[in-house]
Design a protein that fits this description.
The structure holds 2 protein chains of 2 kinds.
Chain A: H1 11-16, H2 19-26, H3 28-45, H4 47-50, H5 91-127, H6 129-145, H7 147-162, H8 164-182, H9 185-198, H10 202-209, H11 214-222, H12 227-251, H13 262-273, H14 279-306
Chain B: H1 2-32, H2 34-38, H3 42-50, H4 64-99, H5 104-118, H6 121-135, E1 148-150, E2 153-155, H7 160-193, H8 196-203, H9 208-230, H10 232-245, H11 251-260, H12 264-292, H13 294-301
Antiparallel strand pairs in B: 1-2
Helix pairs in contact in B: 1-3, 1-12, 4-5, 4-7, 5-7, 6-7, 6-10, 7-9, 7-10, 8-9, 9-12, 10-11, 11-12
Chain lengths: 315, 302
């Protein structure tokens, strides 16, 4: 009765058979970018133990250390490997906490998107009719309006309504909520198309005849066969969410000033950059590009590797 | 007959969406400026909005519509120069990468476009500011420069300083949008070149350039228009970010300022205008689609 046995490209089975790992070894770009991504994730996970300073601890902060360039430059200080910002905070520590924030927001927002998109997509595809029409109409509308614009409007208005002080207590959760709710249509559309293709197959008919409830058929029978595209979209969406979070923090409506985030650091450093202190803005900028690029490349590889057309090819 | 029904249903949907947005912006007005909203009932507000009165700005002490209309030319000119740059760059680059996909130069263009997709617009802007304004000291980084007034339109495109000021924001925005369109155009061109009409044209001995320009580009126009219509929200968001990065005095900056000043009526008016523009653009995209799509043209002439 297990639907997974019908389909060779079921993702967990492919992990077990180690095909994915073999494909990864063959692709140099994907290997390097997933290594970078793994390294950045580990840094993010263990930031409180790894970082030399704590950006939130005011006692470790000395205004006399402000605006120091990176250690390898003239006037650099060996205590601060990547230099300090305008308030004398260690840039390396802020950077580590920033990457942690980015990945944290990315992870939870994508989890929320995935849940919402999967539920709506399954319902639209399986039930059809007016449910399908309403959900897809909403998806089109949301897709055209773009999640970034929606997030800008919602968060900016919330900030104006709450006041900056209160807003920054809630901003990490609001960011996750808004970015998580705003970007469901991609999942829903893909899943709906897949469900439409699957739902007339014999195993679904068999389950219907055996009297299983719709919820069981949708989640236990159909969903496992449509996981691969969802995984690719989710990986790409992590990059998208991180990008949106950075843009929002840059605009001053995302993470608060005391909560280090890459976008906020770039925004804060922009004014210093105009007077020639490039590292305060550009080092977080490079870190952000590295993070986004490695996620995008891994997602690209994953799409090719999970594509049923490429199955069975020993790359 | 069918057309009339379609137009009518479209108008009704648009009117409904505008009404919903107006109700939402009344609610938002109540959140941001409770004192102002308590003197105004929802029905009064809706009557004002439908008669074109979007209220007075609490900060500028002028009609909101007037305040926004004064900021719109700056945004419009930025978007215009950006679109011209994108169109001017995407056609030769797309043609080149599709004609010689294996050439080293087109491979590096495509690699660059992959990096470009990973680059947020404010970061490209920051890099450009650092190179062209801080290190080389060639271009100014904020404002519009000198403007000339034609009627109610403050134009920055008629002075040298205006052009200097628009360079960095427009280049930043086009670099953010270019990769998306470049990848689409290349994929479409590659697909069209393997289609039967093009093979027939090749067999008939039509010169390659004529095929590329007339068959290839023409067929790729349609998906590009769809994409531009679909990406309108993203375009607005990017423009807003670029405007606040370069302190460009357009509608996006105006909105962020209104947020920082808790100017509720201006925020509400901006929301209604954004919804209006959004509906206009999606209608325009559909019209353009109808004009360029041969299937629809055939359906219309029946």
């Amino acid at each position: 009765m297990n639907a997974t046995q019908y389909h060779g490209h079921h993702i967990w089975r492919r992990f077990r058979r180690q095909q994915l790992w073999r494909q990864l070894k063959a692709n140099k770009v994907a290997l390097v970018s997933s290594a970078i991504l793994l390294l950045l994730s580990l840094v993010a996970l263990f930031t409180p133990w790894l970082s030399p300073f704590d950006p939130a601890n005011l006692q470790q902060q000395n205004i006399m250390d402000a605006e120091l360039p990176p250690a390898w430059q003239e006037y650099g200080d060996r205590r601060f490997l990547l230099g300090t910002d305008g308030l004398g905070r260690d840039l390396l520590s802020s950077l580590m906490y920033g990457i942690r924030t980015s990945l944290w927001v990315g992870f939870w927002a994508v989890l929320l998107q995935l849940t919402l998109g999967t539920a709506l997509g399954l319902c639209a595809g399986y039930f059809g009719g007016w449910i399908d029409r309403i959900i897809m109409r909403l998806a089109d509308f949301q897709l055209t309006f773009s999640s970034l614009m929606l997030a800008i409007l919602v968060l900016a208005i919330t900030r104006a309504a709450m006041g900056a002080q209160d807003y920054h207590l809630w901003s990490p959760w609001l960011l996750i909520l808004v970015l998580g709710v705003a970007d469901w249509p991609q999942y829903a559309r893909t899943l709906r198309a897949n469900v439409l293709a699957e739902k007339h197959k014999d195993y679904v008919a068999a389950a219907q005849v055996l009297g299983y409830r719709s919820r069981h058929i949708m989640v236990v029978q159909i969903l496992p066969n449509t996981l691969s595209p969802l995984l690719v979209i989710a990986t790409l969406q992590i990059a998208h969410v991180i990008l949106a979070e950075a843009a929002l923090s840059f605009l001053g409506i995302g993470m608060s000033y005391g909560n280090p985030s890459l976008g906020g650091m770039i925004g804060f450093g922009f004014e210093y950059m105009l007077s020639g202190l490039w590292w305060i803005a550009l080092i977080p900028g490079f870190a952000l590009v590295l993070l986004l690029l490695s996620i995008n490349l891994v997602a690209d590889w994953l799409r090719d590797a999970l594509d049923p057309k490429n199955i069975g090819q020993r790359q | 007959m069918k057309n009339t029904v379609l137009v009518l249903s479209r108008l009704t949907t648009s009117a409904l969406i505008l009404l919903l947005v107006a109700v939402a912006s009344y609610w938002i007005l109540g959140l941001i400026s409770p004192n102002y909203a308590s003197n105004l009932s929802l029905t009064q507000y809706l009557i004002h909005v439908t008669s074109g009165d979007l209220g007075q700005s609490q900060f500028h002490h002028r009609a909101n519509l007037q305040v926004i209309m004064q900021a719109l030319p700056a945004t419009f000119e930025l978007v215009l120069v950006t679109s011209l740059l994108v169109i001017g760059l995407v056609i030769p680059l797309g043609l080149y990468t599709a004609i010689a996909p294996q050439h080293r130069l087109s491979r590096s263009i495509m690699a660059f476009s992959l990096i470009g997709i990973s680059l947020p617009v404010f970061l490209t802007g920051s890099f450009m500011v650092y190179i062209f304004a801080v290190e080389l000291n060639w271009l100014p980084t904020f404002g519009r420069g000198a403007t000339t007034v034609i009627g109610d339109w403050h134009s920055g495109l008629l002075t040298a300083s205006g052009w200097q000021h628009i360079m960095l924001p427009a280049a930043t925005l086009s670099l953010a949008l270019l990769p998306m369109f470049l990848r689409l155009l290349r994929a479409e061109l590659l697909q069209v070149m393997h289609s039967n009409p093009v093979r027939l044209a090749q067999a008939m001995g039509i010169t390659p350039w004529r095929i590329w320009l007339f068959y290839g580009l023409r067929n790729a126009t349609l998906p590009m228009i769809t994409m531009a219509g679909l990406q309108f929200g993203t375009l607005m968001a990017y423009t807003l970010v670029a405007e606040s990065l370069f302190q460009w005095p357009g509608a996006g900056s105006l909105f962020m300022q209104a947020i920082n000043r808790s100017d509720g009526t201006l925020v509400a008016a901006y929301l209604i205008l954004v919804a209006f523009m959004f509906l206009m653009v999606s209608a325009l995209a559909d019209l353009a689609y109808g004009m360029f799509n041969p299937h629809l043209a055939a359906w219309r002439s029946q």
